Amino acid sequence: MGRAVQRVEVVAFQALKTVDPPVTALGGLTVTGVSRHGKFIDLDIDGLHLVIHLARAGWLRWRDDLSGAKPVRPGKGPLAVRVRLAPDDDGAEPGFELTEAGTQKRLAVYVAADPASVPGIARLGPDPLGGDFTPERLGGLVGGSRTQIKGLLRDQSVIAGIGNAYSDEVLHAAKMSPFKVGATLTDAQIAGLYEAIVTTLREAVERSRGLAAKDLKGEKKSGLRVHGRTGEKCGVCGDVIREVSFADSSLQYCPTCQTGGKPLADRRLSRLLK
């Protein structure tokens, strides 16, 4: 914080979702704060907000010196946005780049006077690490739903910021099947789920604290107990971690810890095998 923005270079024009205020309005302003809304990163730049959603394949890469970075033509490579900050006294030009691999381009950047005007932020549910998130509130959010708990935890309009990986981790910690229906949860199960959510996310935040952006993905992967570990042994019980695959995602779970030893059918809308 405290650095002035020199300019913002948009390479992948589909990533920029707003036109008013224009992205050029950020030039010359100073970064005065950084916050988070669910999975949205919010840079307060003298009252204007540069809001970033990295989606599944996006990445933020800090650069100590962008002075030698060559212009990139739209459509060439993974670079989507480059933010150049004011040069240091030694002439180095720090900043960061937003990149996105793959063909599904979902990385999104917004410039807004009020972050609440960003559609994705406006529909967010409560922050699970916020002071107003309690077991009673969690019960109100999931208790009457006929949706499976895995889907509820991933739904940003229900609870902000958990996502696919940490929903697997939360359900493992809570010893709960990902296909358990929200409305069937008892008060004791809701209390256990609440504790698993808060503890899992707080531990993840503490492991990430102080790490450079380039090290965050590696840390996240190393700290996961079940997500992304299909075929490995569960660190709690020693059973083999299994997977259920969907059209565009997958989940991982431990049968012994979460489903009474029964494997889940590997198909959409599957239920416990009888």
From TrEMBL:
PROSITE patterns: FPG_CAT, ZF_FPG_2
UniProt keyword annotation of Zinc present: yes
Catalyzed reactions per annotation: Hydrolysis of DNA containing ring-opened 7-methylguanine residues, releasing 2,6-diamino-4-hydroxy-5-(N-methyl)formamidopyrimidine
GO MF: 8-oxo-7,8-dihydroguanine DNA N-glycosylase activity; damaged DNA binding; DNA-(apurinic or apyrimidinic site) endonuclease activity; lyase activity; zinc ion binding
GO terms (BP aspect): base-excision repair
InterPro entries listed in its UniProt record: FPG_cat, FPG_N, H2TH_FPG, Ribosomal_uS13-like_H2TH, Znf_DNA_glyclase/AP_lyase, Znf_FPG/IleRS
SUPFAM superfamilies for this protein: Glucocorticoid receptor-like (DNA-binding domain), N-terminal domain of MutM-like DNA repair proteins, S13-like H2TH domain
Formamidopyrimidine-DNA glycosylase catalytic domain location: 1-75
The keyword Mitochondrion is annotated on this UniProt entry: no
Domain FPG-type: 225-259
Names of the cofactor(s): Zn(2+)
Ranges in a coiled coil: none
Keywords: DNA damage, DNA repair, DNA-binding, Glycosidase, Hydrolase, Lyase, Metal-binding, Multifunctional enzyme, Zinc, Zinc-finger
PANTHER family given in the database record: FORMAMIDOPYRIMIDINE-DNA GLYCOSYLASE
Family the UniProt entry places it in: Belongs to the FPG family.
Official protein name in the record: Formamidopyrimidine-DNA glycosylase
Gene source species: Sinosporangium album
